[in-house]
Amino acid sequence: MITRRFAALLAVGLPLPALLPAPWLAAGGVVGVVVLLALIDLAAAGPLTGLRLRRAGDRQVWLGQTATVTLTVTNTADREVRLRLRDSWVPSAGATPLSHDAVLPPDTSHDLSTTLVPTRHGDRPAVRVTLRSLGPLGLAYRQRRRTFDDQLTPAWNLRVLPRFPSRRILPEKLSRIRVLDGAVVTRGRGHGTEFDVLREYVIGDDVRSIDWRASARHHDVVVRTWRPERDRRVLCVLDTGRTSAARIGDVPRLDAAIDAALLLSVLATRAGDRVDLLGLDSEVRVRAGGGSHHTQLPLVIDGMASLQPALAETDFSLLARELLRRDRKRSLVVIFTALDIAPMLEGLLPVLPRLAARHKVLVASVRDPQLAHLTALPPRPTATDVHTAAAVERVLTQRDRLRELLTRSGATVIDADLPDFAGRVSDVYLLLKAAGRL
């Protein structure tokens, strides 16, 4: 195959014979010479069959951060190869640069680095490495069929973990966990329902925590201390149905739910509770969790990375069957979904009383701030402005009615704006844990 240099050489050489007596004959001679040089260049190009490829580098990265993957090319042939290589990834992987040039003498290797800045979470695979062997003059090159490149391309997948903007408030929430666990010295009876240890009475302690029998044995006033419940179950349920694709500001609703679920999962793991993940719409997409306390959080985060919105209506009866079938122990079930009246009336509300009878259920939804703005009329409203405001008021009224119905069915409803959403979910968890209601 010919290169652009071949075409440039023809473009320069063909006008010259116009000055000679026999221009057509001279033009043919120029074309013949250039074609002959291209054939010689093609014959001198190194073989592609002697090339071997392997990859190394990052396999996991948080969304918004940078990953580096190195492609090592080894020339096992006995001839030099002037290589032009294109390392193709899916567009959302944000790979740069796409092409590399290298000169490989016999029995040598060369490392080619690709920087990845993904724009979406999930799996971002490498697609294909396309190889070209250029001749010394750069007029022609060798390239095999696509099947040859596919067989030679080493498989590689970059798992992009979801964005975690609520990480900024994680230290403050962890400090509250330490207070609950007693790592921070506090006065008073403390929180929780599980007995911890006996200690000497300190002025300011609640007199109701005095253990009189132990005080008689120790000949001193001692009090009982309590610690929060541990090894409780927290199940994060992420609705991946059609409503999860709606954008709240610049963020999809599913991404906002994943952020809040990430914060909750980290807190619950640090507090000694067990965390599981369930992603579903018309079918169960992800089940993650279980294992030891050291492995459950990575499994949950990895499961969240693979979730994407689906063009399907969420079937909450699947959730009821999953919980009632396998979870005998009481759990805190946090359902991240949208407070839309129609899906809730037909999906979640019929099964909610059965879930609430066995588990503590939280329904968490992020609120669109644009709804409040649309209710305000301009100084000189038009008919369109009045109609829009009336429609939004109706939506807000239905939302209030739905919250009341969910509360009557036994659920705790969290309805917050995007900046406060993750913090509100974690605050409710901490309050329930402090009160021993998990």
Number of strands: 20
Main sheet specs: 6 strands, mixed
The secondary structure category is alpha/beta
CA(first)-CA(last) distance: 70 Å
Radius of gyration, taken over Cα atoms and rounded to an integer in Å: 33 Å
Shape: elongated
Percentage of β-strand residues: 25-35%
The CATH class assignment of the largest domain is Alpha Beta
Mean pLDDT figure: 84
CATH homologous superfamily placement of the largest domain? von Willebrand factor, type A domain
Polypeptide structure, described:
The structure is a single chain. The chain is α/β, with parallel strands linked by helices and 438 residues long. The protein folds into four domains: 4-44; 51-161, Sandwich (Immunoglobulin-like); 193-227, no CATH class; 233-434, Rossmann fold (3-Layer(aba) Sandwich). 37% of the residues lie in helices and 28% in strands. The chain has helices spanning 4-13, 23-44, 146-152, 170-181, 212-218, 253-270, 296-305, 316-326, 341-358, 369-374, 383-408, 418-434, and strands spanning 51-57, 60-62, 67-75, 81-89, 95-96, 99-104, 108-116, 122-134, 141-142, 157-161, 194-200, 222-227, 233-239, 247-248, 251-252, 274-280, 284-289, 331-336, 360-367, 411-417. The strands form five sheets. Strands 2, 4, 6, 8, 9 and 10 form a six-stranded mixed β-sheet that branches. The radius of gyration is 33 Å and the shape is elongated. The relative contact order is 0.10. Mean pLDDT is 84; it is low at 183-192. It comes from Paractinoplanes ferrugineus. Pfam families: DUF58.
